[in-house]
Fold:
Amino acid sequence: MMNHNLRRRLPVIILIVVISLFGILPFYEMIVMSTHTSERILTKLPLLPGTHGGENLRAVLSAGFARYFFNSFYIAALTSIGGALIVSMAGYAFAKFMFRYKDLLFMAVLGSVMIPPQLSLVGLTIEMKYLGWMNTHLPLIIPPMAYAVGVYFVRSYAQGAIPNSLLESARSDGASESLIYFRIVLPMLKPALLTVVLLLYIWSWNNYIYPLVMVNESRLYTVPLALSTFGGMFRADYGGRMMALVVGTVPTIVLMIIGRKHLIEGLAGTAIKE
Amino acid sequence: MKRNLARTAYFFLIPFFTVFIAFAVFPMLFSIGVSLFDWNGISGAEFAGFSNYGKLFTDVRFWNSLLVTLAIILPAIPLQIGIGLLIAFLLWDFLRKYTSLVRILNFLPYLIIPFAIGILFQYFFDRKIGFVNRFLLNVGLTDEPIGWLTHPVLVKLVVIFLLVWRYYGYMAIILIASLQTIPDSLSEAAQIDGASWHHRLFHIVIPLLRPVLIFLSVTSIIGGLQLFDEPVAVMTYSKLPFGGIRDAVLTLLMNFYSISFRNFEFGYGAANAVIMFVITFVLSIGLIRTTRNN
Structure:
């Protein structure tokens, strides 16, 4: 029985291992190459980690990468936390209140998901110029907070997670609406909020075209923008270049793996529900 | 005491809608308006009527960028979804215990900065130093290095390969999550019936996943029409022109970017964006319609 089972499963296991290797290998090689000298990388593709990692890391840090990393980090943190807060308020309002134009407003939010972001990019750039926000981090922090998918996600979550009776009894106890929101609703929405935070964080961290258009002073660069100019900084230093990729990507990946439950729920939740 | 709950609701909506209207709706309408002008964003704008749109229809570069984008995403999307479906089905059908481990491993590429992936693949496929060529030379499959990034077809294959690699794990995750909503009794019944694996795949799993597969196709097309970071990164590091040799990987969004933010033709760029939106809209609606009718 056991044998039969194994024989049936073996080809499947091999296939899955091969596909998974295909997925991991470039990533693994990126990390391995970041620990070697350029000469070593250019003579033969290294398969095991080397000892030059510290050296490469120093080169990356002396090129000012710590600043870019900090820029990306604080921008992504502010966007995701601020976005989760305003998105949760809107999602809660759509889930638990009756008001005029509710359906119309919700359709507007949902419909905006279908619109490619570049449609607003020219207008947004000119708007930022008039506001004096060009060459600041504000266009990278504030506009992405209006995360329409997040409103949809929080609304669906709140409909299932927050019983009306709880809100009513809190109201009859005389609790104010803001107290109800901060003390009762927000804690109950925590899983959905974490999902929104993670989705916005990874979007912000990975985003390239917004900073490319809005920022041109190098001290304001984010990680992807800094990577795009490293061609000049690390013209021949492949080890350093790979280390820059590792430093720019691995911490976020670790964060996402820790929060994978909420991340996957968010990605899958928006796809399955409709 | 009767509370005005509608007023409370509006109060909760204000922060989101302030940002939404100021930085999503307004710039969108503004862009549409700008598309009717000739404007570089600094000196005075001149009303141009629909001339920017007229110019677009005879702009060879625009139509080329549409074809390039389709030539990249039309092969890439079925492959991404196909490999994702294969993994999801195999895990669900044979190896349910290992689902979470395999899921995370295959999901890693999706989390990496797209620009970083472009740099990585540029290195792999570089003509002189790339290990793909070194490997092919060593094994003797080719006598001289292949110009992966300079050949108009091969460079598209590199970008397709990159996209498949980046997204198949994301597809698998979503498909596994929706397979987990299928009641076990259904799959067990099929197993007891002695249905073969391909019967289970084509007659149980795919029909059940249909709505999700349609959702993934439509969102992939919308996302694919915005392809930008990866081809830009591949080209930046290969020191080739922005869109590759003879615009081989100049996508719609790259073309839009170069018009709007390199040449500062805001009016013409905005017209490009409007037509890109129309194309996206028509394609997604068309896809949803045809898949519903069948």
Observations:
- The CA atoms of residues 103 and 244 of chain B lie 34 Å apart.
- Chain B touches chain A through 97 residues (CB under 8 Å).
- The longest helix of chain B spans residues 60-93.
